[in-house]
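Can't paste images in this forum, so I'm doing it all in text. The chain is below; anyone willing to post the predicted structure tokens underneath?
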Amino acid sequence: MSSSPLYYAKILLFGEYGIINDSSALSIPYGNFFGSFKFFPSDSATEEQLTSNQHLRQFTDYLKKMPVTEEFFTTFDFERLDADIARGLYFDSSIPQGFGVGSSGALVAAVYDNYSTNKIDPDTTLNINNLPKLRHQLAVMESYFHGKSSGMDPLICYLKIPVILQSGHSLNPITLPESKAGSSAIFLINSGMPGKTHSMVTLFMEKMKNEGFRKLLKNQFVKYNDACIEAFLNGEISGLFKNLKKLSRWVFTHFNPMIPEHLHSLWLQGLETNQFYLKLCGSGGGGFILGFSPDFDKAHHLLKPYNPEVIYRF
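Text version of the structure:
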């Protein structure tokens, strides 16, 4: 294998959980974290490298058991993959695991890109018709890590461009409004603890068994989420923050167990002061929290103790 390309982290700006229930979603690559395949020296491997190598072997064993069907028609060069694992292949990644920024998605993208024998190539064979097929294949692969995957994380990590999923079905690459030195900002807050994606998704699926919750999700969460995406892409700042406040309050009320307890007061402070609004970044339970502020400089004194990291200004 020649030098491996980089696979960036991703940030799901909108659509967490609702993506499983036909809401729209907007996801972007995040270049501050990334991973790539490397080989470790046989005589001086670190424990971290050995662990990554072992996880690759287990993931490969899982892929070998996946039946090739009309929906999942990906085949892999397992002979080459097994040989590379045997000589020290590992995924060298700065993407923190369990933080909602696509650590498993980047690994899935890397395996698919480097070892699929019939991959859909972004530069040559990708088109609007096979984009959903690509997402489905990557979702099947990532299900190894989380039990259920939308496929959006590895898709963003693989394509390395922003993608919008509309009403749970229609996928389209998009161009974000140009980032500029405006007063508004999107930022990340590190909760200081990894989330447990599998347990959080399981909790959500349990809630989905309740008809009343399903109606709330469809009639309120999806409505606010989709309105946020539309306003953001159209540059409608007032409409964006109006719906962000509704979305943030809804998440605090109905996804409360997914918000780390030590951030509850900050979450409510944003809703009370209207200086910023917080939402989940990924499945929650830990990891990063995503924030939006109409005037970040004004809100910074409230956020400063939490070391916010600005990822986009507008």
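The domain at 7-173 is CATH 3.30.230 (Ribosomal Protein S5; domain 2). Strands lie at 7-14, 25-39, 89-93, 163-166, 170-173, 185-190, 277-280, 288-293, 309-313.
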